[in-house]
Design goal:
The complex is a heterodimer. Chain A has 18 helices and no strands. Chain A is an all-alpha fold. Chain B is mostly helical. Chain B has one domain. Classes of the chains: A mainly alpha, B mainly alpha. At the A-B interface, helix 7 and helix 8 of A face helix 10 of B.
Chain lengths: 353, 260
Amino acid sequence: MAFWIASSPHNHNHTKTPNLMRLVMYATLPGVLAQWYFFGWGNLIHISLAMATALICEFTVLSLRKKPISHELFDGSALLAALLIGICLPALAPWWISVIGTIFAIVIAKQLYGGLGHNPFNPAMAGYVMLLVSFPLQMTLWQPPLSLVAVDLNFTNTLYTILTGFSVEGYSVEQIRTSIDGLTMATPLDTLKTNTSLGLTVFESIKNPIFGDNFALGWEWINAGFLLGGLFLIAKKAIPWQTPISFLLSLFICSFIGYSLSPDSSASTMFHWFSGATMLGAFFILTDPVSGATSNKGRIIVGLLAGLLVYLIRTAGGYPDGVAFAVLLCNMSAPLIDQYTRPRTYGHLKGDK
Amino acid sequence: MSNEIAPQSSNETELTDKADEQAAVKAKLKAEYKELAIQGLWKNNPGLVQLLGLCPLLAVTSTVTNALGLGLATLLVIICSNATVSAIRHWVPKEIRIPIFVLIIAAFVTCVQLLMNAFTYGIYQSLGIFLPLIVTNCAIIGRAEAYASKNPVKQSAFDGLMMGLGFAIILLLLGVIREILGQGTLFDGANLLFGEWASVLRIEVMQLDSQFLLAILPPGAFIAMGILIALKNAIDNYIKNKKVVDTEQVIERVRVNFDS
């Protein structure tokens, strides 16, 4: 009788990449539904465009690299990256925005570095930042929530606007974004930034209908949706809890310090939590197992760093939201953080090699 | 050497020997020139392989015109500096050669800068600081140190021409890629470099509604450069693989003959 000795780990986890990716995709559903409810069909159209592009790009590059196509094409990583890009885009951005962004994300940020598991940057965020840097005009075409839009944006009208740049009635995207009293409406974060630079206090700016009754009309529910999905993922142990918790805590502390020092010129802590891409970034983007830190201590440090960066970019930077830039900067520093937070090997003393 | 050892039977053989020797020297020179050209344009290209002078390479190649302007300026400077360094190579003390090379290069760069200021003011302005910065282009001082300071004037000047051409071609390629992707045009503003007649050179390759800023900004230059280097390596690998297959076939033929 042979006594077969297997090396550790003895407790196997049979989760495969496609299962994990599918779980993460399901978890975005509450947030995506909230986005659909408040901003219309635009993001769903962009998500499907991005997914189609991602599959085509992935297929082309895999066949050029002579890799097992059927195995890697449907592992869901490309689809998840496309989904995240589609969620991040302004709902009424032209169709080629999502196509170019996805091509960049899949071909350059993911496959040119060696495919899944080798990319130093989160592909979705690399694609998004590329778009933000290259097409600042199109990437700021955020429409206000549907309840504030005068034009009826049903499915066909949204599709027509994305494809041609004009709605069926002939309104341009710029006109759709303009409220009845002739003011162009931007995102809450953007509005707050502009108003603060104009010398208005936060209390005066949040009277703008874009902020709604609580923090940010529509956006708070989208963020709540992503928070729900994220908690589901943590409960399922699909993502580690350290990253999102430390990120949110860091953002909370930073904005609390800012708010207590000068309440007139800085937004409240909850506004920072429930506007922009905070929850999406915390639970779905920073937790990317490939481009993030791998040790528990390292994850906490990455989360703290990202929270600080997001707060700094939002308050002092040139862009209204900074999650994408913060994520890329954290991805860059993740290997170094991992280097210094390597856990102690079992049976060795601290500092022992 | 061989002539001294060989028995001198008649004048005729001596003459033919001399002719042979001359032919051999000529062939050697020709081979050297060929090697210089291959090294400069492909194998040791300053832009693609040595990766020298990256700063101007990435900074000014946002349009073909800028790239061409800087490429020509660099070409002129590297030819002249190589020739001069090679001409004075016997009188330069080894210990202070680098400052002397830098002085020579700086003198030529100043000439080129003043010439461009006088005749192509528009391109002079759009190249900005990168024109005087040719002095610090490592490709130029690298050639002065590695080749021109050890070889005769003619070869050095030719080496400068080939290295400069190799650099200018990469500049142009990057300029073409970035200008087409960024603005959808080619030779936009060529009249700044060549005078008024050149404004007809402007080609509208595609109509873009909005500029693709990434291609115009430095990150686009890095990405395009990386793709060019990858392309060069792919071509090299392809050629290498092909050669291996060829030699294998030769060996097979010999074996067949031996067996039969």
